[in-house]
Amino acid sequence: MLIAFVLLCFESDLLWKVQQYNLFLDTSLFFRDQMLVPGGFLSYVSCYFTQFFFHPWQGVLLLCGWWLLLMWLTKRTFRISDSWTVLALTPVAILLVANMNLGYWHYFMKLRGYFYVATIGTTAGVALLWTFRTLPQKLWLRSLFLMVTSAIGYPLFGIYALATVMLMTIWIWRLSQNRSQNAILTIIALLSIIAVPLFCYRYVYYQTNYDDIWTTALPTFLVQESYPQYYIPYYLLGIFFLLMVVLYQKTLTIKSKTFFRWSPQVILAVVLIASVWHFWYKDDNFHHELAMQHCIENTDWEGVLLEDEEIEEPTHVIVMMHNLALMKLGRQLDEMYNYPKASVKSNTVLPLNMVYHVIGRMIYYHYGLLNDCHRICLEDGVEYGWRVELLEYMARCSLLCGETQAAQKTLDLLRHTTFQDKWADAMQQLVDNPKQIAEARETGLITHMMHYSNALGGDGGNVERYVMTQLASQDSDDPFFQQQAVVGALWMMNPQIFWKRINHYARLLKKGDPMPRIFQEGAYLFGKMANMPNIEKYPFDKSVKKTYHAFMKEAKKYDNQPANIGRSALYPFYGNTYYYEYYFLKNLH
Amino acid sequence: MKKISLFTSALLLCACSQQLPSEFSQTDLLPHIYPDYVDVTVPVNIAPLTFEMDDRSSDEIAVRYSFADEEIICTGKKAQPDIDDWKHLTAAAKGKAIQVETYASKDGQWTRFKPFSIYVSTDSIDAYISYRLIHPSYVAYEDLTISQRRLENYDESVIYDNMLCTEDNNGQCINCHNYQQYNPERMQFHARQNHGGTIISYDGKTRKIDMRNDSILSAGVYPAWHPELPLIVYSTNLTRQNFHVNDPNKIEVYDIGSDLIAYDVEKNEVTNIENDPNEFEVFPFWAPDGKSVYYCSAHFEYPDTTTNQSIYLLRHSNKVFYNIYRKSFDSATMTFGPRELVFAADTLEMSATLPRISPDGRYLMFAMGKYGVFHIWHRDADLWMMDLKTGETRSMRELNSPDTES
């Protein structure tokens, strides 16, 4: 109950994301595709259960159901007495940590269904151990069971079946006093553990590397280098069951008063809860990012801004989603510079560009750079496996690009999911009625962003620079796009580019439409920098000039000091001006 | 035993109980089916032609394939003839045509479409086709295989899987599998990166070679086996790729330099054939008689002031036009003659690539697009055919579509 409560209250956005990243299709091809590697069945079943996190309460109920089953099996298999029931909670606590300490790894997991794999693999293993214990003590029967567990279990459950056979090998010596029989069974088990993966490698599977054949169905924590600390929960899981096997039917009697008799249980429970709490990845920004992504998926732009209200030091991912929401709500020019400037790095050991990998495709999509969104989807699909989110973005891009067949193909795939079929049907409306695209809530504004002229290049992994460079390098007669083009030019801090974009924007303004303040600040600043003779004759707001002169006067005081001193000192007074942006954040761009 | 007989009879009854709808409306339209088999000609040994309606408006289809008194009736979401029934039918219709009647149901209402034919050639096709099976992508790759499928049924098997030699971050990209005269005993493919090299299998002996040396641009890339001799001509390429910001073609793949080399399989020797720095030679292909090799070449000169060839070519990639050339080959001396122009695409401001010669040596088929070398990414690219005897060249309108042909 406690776990379910915590997961639902604090991790519902993460759970939603997990299902977005683990595709399950009800097709025979999807099943066959999973079965290409040992342990593929485990991935298949895990993906099936993971999809229920679409409604987090459903997913959590199922997950807790699996964990209750595991606890019950653990207690029955190892005949844990009622006074030591809390022991059965240990594997659940470890499995919880294995999932909840991943943080940004969630975005980079290659093992399909990873959120459930260890849970279902362990549960299957314990069930097999229980069956093994209850078998009659006949050599042939136990030998057969060991061999079948290896031969059938390995293709289905990968390492979990091998680990189970290994535990059986050790357990034999606790279950039976017949040494010669035990020795024979041990040899059979060890041979099975060695031979079955080798046989499968040679004759059954062609996708498994030799180095990985004994560890299939374990996640891979490798990005440029290995991160072995994330395997610790898996080691602990193995050690726990090893101890359960070795200490099987050992009784620990505490002849004491009730309090002391129960105290070991209480202590263990406290240790488990404290450990789970300690290793649970609780980074605020990580969770804010997830919540904001969830809001964006639901086209809830107000929700995005509500989410980041309390953030003091946002990551760059958050800043970009914040600006995107402002743009969508038409508040960007007034509020963009009000948000905290300095962004902190994402709290992760992974040496990867999080803007690119976490929200790159989303940013490209909403800024109308559909080729680039599509490109990231393809690359990530190949690298990490096809995900619901990737297919959704690919369908969106195809739809907006007028590639009807491609959109149809992707939507047809999504119709084979359990929960995305409604989304696919909604998009189908747009495929069938392309005129509605410009009016639709999600796609309407994007159609205003599709005015880029073509060029060959690449983003070099820097999403913001790429978007701003593209925007700043062209004009459009669409006022919404042109406004973004001026924003891009301001970001570039290049006066020549700025003048081109702002002049075109000014021509698009209707009589009486005000020129946004930050655009005026840009124009006044660049005009002063170039000593334009007529700059004072232009109709700038008085406050624009006044702020400029006040800022320049204050900024001069910090001329010979490190930039961060002036930056901090002037931020409270001028942080929402383009002058501040230009002089103190130029190098950060 | 009796129970088994009854069960078997019941099964057979079910299998034979597929029937065409008795009530339906009629249309003069041909059915939109996927794959589009309407009026195609197939080899006699081809696997059953399975298809479905190419729209979402049908709940179910019923199809009758028939010739004379032989017929197969299939019902369901797809038409999937049983392979044995299909073999009987194609054998009977050899040299003639199978009639296909298609009925589609929507909300319980059946429509009968205009029947079409599947013409059965008396010729058979080679039983196997091999291909690289890879997820669509631009840069990244993970699992990919060189696989083969038996065209007489749907059996597929893997020839080589790159994951076998992938270690942690060191992946392996395999490509350019190629055979000498369709002979599976004489095959080559490249493996890039981890444990990289060109794997050549020749009459039972398999070895990996590294062709790279200081005098050539790269290891061998696009291969062409001599039809009889142990000789493979390769292009060597310095290939780059960039992305279109806003173009349906998405990506541009181009060479900033390319040459031709020849590799003697028996002597393990590499020799230069063409290495003019102002010519980008690529896509060699032998004439069936082995007396000449066709290839493409684009004339492109970098200005002396060029400091970065990649960027210069990136900006001028739509000004690179490939022509088709031919070089004679003397098998006695193992030497190549001077090049001769076969098709000057640049005069049309077009680019011709991937020359292929018909088995009788008379026809040259190639891909032609507006510019560049990698027409698979060019939606304007079409197939063209040249009669080498008359010099007549035409677009193959009967094959081309508004999308890519290459």
Characterise this structure.
The complex is a heterodimer of chains A (589) and B (406). Helix content of chain A is 65%, strand content 1%. Chain A is mainly alpha-helical and 589 residues long. Chain A folds into three domains: 2-279, no CATH class; 284-448; 514-584, no CATH class. In chain A, helix 13 runs antiparallel to helix 14 (301-307) and helix 25 crosses helix 26. Chain B has 406 residues and is mainly beta. Chain B has two domains: 18-120, Immunoglobulin-like (Sandwich); 211-395, Beta Barrel (Lipocalin), CATH 2.40.128. In chain B, strand 14 (172-180) and strand 15 form a beta hairpin. Chain B starts with a helix and ends in an 11-residue tail after the last strand. Mean pLDDT of chain B is 92; it is low at 1-17. Chain A binds chain B through residues 206-211, 222, 224, 226, 369-372, 374-375, 378-383, 401, 403, 412, 450, 452-458, 470, and chain B through 56, 135-143, 145, 158, 161, 163-169, 242-248, 250-252, 314-315, 317. Strand 3 (456-457) of chain A pairs antiparallel with strand 19 (231-244) of chain B, so a sheet runs across the interface.
